[in-house]
Amino acid sequence: xxxxxxxxxxxxxxxxxxxxxxxxxxxxxxxxxxxxxxxxxxxxxxxxxxxxxxxxxxxxxxxxxxxxxxxxxxxxxxxxxxxxx
Length: 85
Hints:
This protein has a domain of about 40 residues. The chain contains 2 helices and 3 strands. A 3-stranded antiparallel beta sheet has the order 1-2-3. A hairpin with a 2-residue loop joins β2 and β3. The radius of gyration is 22 Å and the shape is rod-shaped. About 10% of the residues are buried.
């Protein structure tokens, strides 16, 4: 009887410890992919076209539409090819 209780407590504690770790491992709290503003700026545009859009901090960004992972994305000037830093 006592062993059953210990096993149940151990199982519950293991689950409680593992759940937050799996949530953190998913993306470390970082947003993945281009921001919505960069996608919207290139709607109805072609790769290579220049656009200007408002960034997340309210700043005006000059960018070029580039195809990245099958999406047309506004990549700000100064970013390396492919839009990744």
